[in-house]
Write a structure and sequence with these properties.
single chain; mainly beta; 4-stranded antiparallel beta sheet; 1 helix; 6 strands
């Protein structure tokens, strides 16, 4: 388990997020990877999307400026709980 600082406290007041590595599809490089948090959420490490048209479409669909997206291979989803 990896502990990483988080600037946004969870509802319980903790500022530290504990991570559990679920898996990777990359072999040696560690990217992309999936993690579970102790908050009942997930983190995904992937390739940052920089395509202006894709980002414009996401913003048009409501993605706020302070968020970003990453691209992952479909195979990474098998590491998430409940995946078949």
């Amino acid at each position: 388990m990896v502990s990483t600082p988080n600037t946004t406290p969870d509802p319980g007041g903790s500022t530290t997020m504990k991570l559990t590595h679920l898996g990777t599809e990359s072999g040696d490089t560690g990217c992309p990877s999936a993690f579970a948090t102790d908050r009942g959420t997930f983190l995904v490490q992937g390739w940052k999307v920089s395509d202006p048209e894709a980002l414009a479409e996401l913003r048009r669909r409501g993605m706020p400026e302070y968020e970003t997206v990453v691209e992952i291979p479909a195979e990474l989803l098998r590491h998430f709980p409940g995946a078949s």
